[in-house]
Amino acid sequence: MIKPMVNINLNNVSYTYSGRLEPAVENVTLSLDSGEITAITGLNGSGKSTLARLILGLLKPQEGQVCLDNRPVNSYTLAEVGEKIGYVLQNPNQMLFNTTVYNEVAFGLRWKGMKGEELKARCNQYLELFHLWPLRNKLPFNLSEGQKQMVAISAVLALEPSCLILDEPTKSIDTLRKKILIRVLRDIGCLGTGIIVISHDRSFVDALGGREINMVKGKITAYETRR
Amino acid sequence: MKLDVRTKLVIAAILSTLAIIYQNAVVLGVVLIITIVALALLKVSLQSFFDFRKLIYLYLVLIVIQSLFIRGGEPLITIGELHLLTTESIIYGIAIILRFLILIGSGLILLSCNLSEMLLAMDRMHIPYEIVFMIQIGIRFIPVLINELSNIFDTIQLRGVDLRKVYKRKVIRVYISIFTPLIYSIWQKAEQLSILLELRGFRRYPTRTYYRTISMGVIDYIIIGLSLSLAVIFVVVISML
Ligand SMILES: Nc1ncnc2c1ncn2[C@@H]1O[C@H](COP(=O)(O)OP(=O)(O)OP(=O)(O)O)[C@@H](O)[C@H]1O
Ligand SMILES: [Mg+2]
User: Fold this and answer.
1) ipTM confidence
2) What pLDDT score was predicted for residue A50?
């Protein structure tokens, strides 16, 4: 399946949280195409999550502009942005709101109008992927942190967006699932999905390959391309 | 000059009491002027006052609603038997707006206090620590919960729900989706917090100590005394007019 391409462009973007003196993101110019794997690294508080929220239009930059497919991100509704970009938050607790793990994965698909066998097949596929099938009837809130994280990731992956932003996806998952995640991300990357991971996890970033962007105090300090 | 929190509490209490006991627009106007002077003297930013001009339409609606129930005064606009606007209702509406502004002013005084000092002040006023603690937790968690709520709103939309296009029938489902995780997380926080507090020795001993200290200076006593006498004079003068 060939996915529609998404092109993300940031032009001189700066953002300061209200009540803060220093900008959380400062003069960032960046261009990301689907089909690329990009890792954003940096110390705690260097503005990585803020950058992700700016790309999604959840925050409006005081300076500069964020464009998706050459249109300002604010001219889209959030649901439209969600069609293009899948976003997994740093805290999975803020992403789970259904009564069962199965419904969690099916949520976005149902709203897209998918039903019957197709819906079932798609959900099963993504639940199997991370060994979540035995948990399908459990309440998402009562899972372990790592399991919650996997459910949140599966729920977003199942929507098969053209671009993915994962904020600290390996934070609490085990090595087995980390390996699976790396494989899955590389696979969908090859199929043309743009992938942006925010991570401190050296081994994970290295295993993914692709481009690495390092942030220090809200500024991009280094680009590196490795394969 | 830095005033004690208790002085600010007294001033805010006096102003809001005056706002509630009077209904006359002129008197409330005077109280509002006093409030603004007090705010300026306490060096509270008046900026947030101006943010309330956005509510101007709400005030207008209030005045019209008042008119439907207040019979007195000259009718200005009528539809058949119904008086839409009367002189008296305008005055009454203005009084309500003034009262509202005074209460906001008192609120601003309270907001300008350091939270820990305010809690300490409550403790000194012999309010049981348990109650002070509950207030503290409440205030502390408001921004956290708002932040969480807005995150849930965002993720729900990002996962394909266009909130503006949702059908009536499904709106309830969306709201359930939004509030279930919030309530769950509040529940979880409460559970975790109570365990953590016990582990860290909460209420192990009957009294606790405070890092901060507050003390009433001479100036505080003078200002409280003057404010109270001013309030009494104000009440007496108004009742004689
Ligand atoms: N809601 C907020 N209000 C005010 N300041 C914030 C808020 N969120 C983040 N900040 C500040 O913005 C800066 C960047 O935060 P951000 O969350 O983007 O960092 P990060 O790189 O994702 O860090 P981490 O690796 O810990 O996730 C920090 O200095 C932080 O204190
Ligand atoms: Mg972060």
Assistant:
1) 0.75
2) 94
